Amino acid sequence: MKELVEVIAKALVDHPDEVVVTQKEEGKSIVVELHVDPSDMGKVIGKQGRIAKAIRSVVKAASLGESKRVDVEIV
Q1: Quick one: how far is CA 52 from the chain centroid?
Q2: What's the pLDDT tens digit per position in 49-68?
């Protein structure tokens, strides 16, 4: 999941070098944290959070085969 979020985020931002994705397992869920340059935050979130919601939907669809729930947090 980490690689998927990283590829999507790097395609959206102006500073792809600043994209950092970390993955933590917490019990029955996996938390993927996305860190971007502050100037690119709006591009990753989108108007009314539409792009962030789309990223979460893609990750959720990709994780259906796994037994753990995957959450994406934009930090």
Answers
A1: 8
A2: 999 999 999 999 999 888 88
